[in-house]
């Protein structure tokens, strides 16, 4: 069934059961791969709050989680836009760190942010993303744990918003043509 949010219509794309099943599989893989490493999961707000909550719930190993927001401001000509993390208090030195993202679209966000985290010299820096739009990605990012590869269409629901609305939908919708 299509839904209306603000001025646009969206149609169902990934059902809640399919989402949950895939997230369980990712959590199982992470639990297997990172057992004994006490990984620190870092969720990037706002969009990733649902994915982060669900995947973290399904983990069966000792792990920590922290939530950050990214702020972008204009740097110098040579640095371009600079992204800073708000709320990151943990020391990443020597740790196994897993970034949780709802979506990698152009890849700009993570390709700018990951090198900053590398400066803190984590032992391992991994990325888990629920969705990736390979056809939209202009800044390649290595995604170690991926939920779904999706076409280059605007998505809504399960944390993803359209102008503030739709984040609470338990399934993912795509913009109707
Ligand atoms: O690969 P990119 O093209 O950089 O896009 C990905 C980013 O876009 C979304 O965040 P958004 O800026 O929409 O903020 P929000 O999570 O607060 O909604 C998403 O959560 C990623 O952080
Ligand atoms: N809501 C939403 N936010 C995004 N941020 C980057 N890509 C998307 C998308 O497809 N939908």
Q: What topology emerges from the helices and strands here?
A:
Elements: E1 3-5, E2 8-14, H1 16-34, E3 40-45, H2 49-58, E4 64-74, E5 81-86, E6 96-104, H3 108-118, E7 124-132, E8 145-149, E9 155-156, E10 172-175
Parallel strand pairs: 3-4, 3-6, 6-7, 7-8
Antiparallel strand pairs: 1-2, 2-10, 4-5, 9-10
Bound molecules: 1-O-pyrophosphono-5-O-phosphono-alpha-D-ribofuranose (PRP) and guanine.
Guanine is lined by residues 103, 105, 154-156, 160-162.
Q: What does it look like?
A:
It is a single chain. This protein has 177 residues and is an alpha/beta fold. The chain has one domain: Rossmann fold. The protein has helices at residues 16-34, 49-58, 108-118, and strands at residues 3-5, 8-14, 40-45, 64-74, 81-86, 96-104, 124-132, 145-149, 155-156, 172-175. A 6-stranded mixed sheet has the order 5-4-3-6-7-8, sandwiched between helices. α2 links the parallel β3 (40-45) and β4. The mean pLDDT is 96. The chain binds 1-O-pyrophosphono-5-O-phosphono-alpha-D-ribofuranose and guanine. Guanine (GUN) binds at residues 103, 105, 154-156, 160-162. Its main location: cytoplasm. It comes from Chitinophaga cymbidii. It is found in: Cytoplasm. Belongs to the purine/pyrimidine phosphoribosyltransferase family. This is Hypoxanthine phosphoribosyltransferase.
């Amino acid at each position: 069934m299509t839904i209306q949010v603000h001025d646009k219509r969206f149609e169902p794309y990934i059902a809640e059961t399919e989402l949950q099943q895939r997230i369980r599989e990712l959590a199982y893989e992470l639990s297997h791969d990172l057992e004994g490493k006490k990984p620190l999961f870092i969720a990037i707000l706002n969009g990733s709050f649902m994915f982060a909550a669900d995947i973290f719930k399904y983990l069966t190993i000792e792990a920590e989680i922290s939530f950050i927001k990214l702020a972008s401001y204009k740097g110098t000509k040579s640095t371009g836009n600079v992204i800073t993390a708000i709320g990151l208090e943990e020391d990443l030195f020597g740790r196994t760190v897993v970034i949780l993202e709802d979506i990698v679209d152009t890849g700009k966000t993570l390709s700018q942010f990951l090198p900053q985290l590398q400066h803190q010299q984590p032992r391992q820096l991994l990325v888990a993303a629920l969705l990736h739009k390979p056809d939209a990605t202009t800044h390649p990012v290595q995604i170690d744990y991926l939920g779904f590869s999706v076409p280059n269409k605007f998505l809504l629901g399960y944390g993803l918003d359209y102008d503030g609305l739709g984040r609470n939908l338990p399934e993912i919708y795509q913009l109707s043509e």
